## 1
Amino acid sequence: MLSSTLRVAVVCVSNVNRSMEAHSILRRKGLSVRSFGTESHVRLPGPRPNRPVVYDFATTYKEMYNDLLRKDRERYTRNGILHILGRNERIKPGPERFQECTDFFDVIFTCEESVYDTVVEDLCSREQQTFQPVHVINMEIQDTLEDATLGAFLICEICQCLQQSDDMEDNLEELLLQMEEKAGKSFLHTVCFY
């Protein structure tokens, strides 16, 4: 068993749907978790597919909620965005960018390959301080409500297995292979150092 609580981060593009659904589920299971986005702005579905609603990362979930409520309550209720923002507000005030976080994690889950690339690049560009390893694992999760929930449960299952592991470093690869077979998903995995 790990000697201390597993420190987990979940990262998607905007820190709104996939990472926050995982954050919600992992937190309910008692895990130490934070969530992040990697883009320069938060982008939410807008009135047309090519016209997203764009917010700065400093905008709180409550401010986004109120803005969308004012713009088109029916549309943003129907597409689930108001529900998502309400859930997010109960977890933390607003979205956070991974690149601005200086905390250390044992495992970082990313929800798409481009986010994985950004996280790995960011970690590799930082000056190494402690040489503590951090496992970065990518699992492709479509940015839909249903897929975010399914992905969050799979991330939770992996975290619970790691939390119970006698040696995370030795058991992680085997665990990921088992999860690939079970879930029919493939994972990218690398180790970076703080």
## 2
Amino acid sequence: MNVIRLCIQFVYRYFFDVTSDVLVYIIAWATFRANGFGGNIDRIDPGDYISFEVTTIFILVIGTFFSLVFHVFTPEASWNPSSEMLPNTIEEDEESLVVQPITMPSSTAEPEDLSLRISMAWRDWVTEPQFYYISLIYTSSRLVANMANIFMPVFLQESANVNQELITIIPLVMSLSGVAASILLKVFRKCASKKASMVIAIMIGFFACSIASVRPLSTYAIYLIAILFGLSSSILIILSLAFTADLIGYCTESSAFVYGSMSFWDKLTNGLVVVVIQELTEVGCDGDNCEIYYKRIVSIGIAVPLLFCLLGVIIISSIKLGRTKKIRSKLSASDETITTVNESSPVSSDSSEFLIATDSKMGYGAITRL
């Protein structure tokens, strides 16, 4: 139940994250339209610097305002670990106690779920294969979303040759599609598992990449690409965060290391990819003509992290997330202990229960009949 609640929180978190992106694009569109697109409606040029300055000022003012609202008006609840970790105390009267059958442990009994009591340190996560599988999925999902958001406007200007107004509208369409995906995902999850939903999102991304490789592109095709990329990237990010929550499980004492590590590799990978793509423009572009180059970036370039994401999902398809190597070893040790006790016990398996009559009195050495 806690994992489900956490997944719902991720959906709401991403919903407001994308909503903030939508606000940025609305401000940019309104600013460029008010300034007449720098006198050139067909392309973005240095004459549009005023529009970028105004957009930046608006974003800083709005962001600062809501940050102050959060820090001033958001109460911070105090947390008492002893009240949450200790079980409720149940006081019972001696007269209400009923003598129950005494059951000996048997070899068929399932061991206690030790995953609720086993802690994972950062050293344990470093040696855990599931940690790297989820890192691959999370980093690839972020790479798909960031590449689509970064290079889609460049693709529209260099490859699709659309006007400035459409360049400001298409990213807005992608963000709105992401908002719709975050809302509809809760309904969609009732019909499919998280892993199946991830595969569907990857297929949607592949379909968008295939459309982007076609030339020439109509306006309707460009809108379709934006919608598909928005749906795919949003679902991928939400589900990758849900996979991360499943991986952590109840080992929340080291969750900061898990999220921090994945965020670090995500930002490092995205930065390196963007730098490499920009450096390769000298090789991929024919002088100032980068039409084919950025078309390949949006089609083939985004398809590569989608493939890595699909590979990660295939790897974890038969794995129960959260059942780490440390937990499995503890459970195996518990199974061996129970088996040893059963084999060394003189009581046969047919006598695993002793029924004691309610009118019997138990002494130190014998059971006497009243």
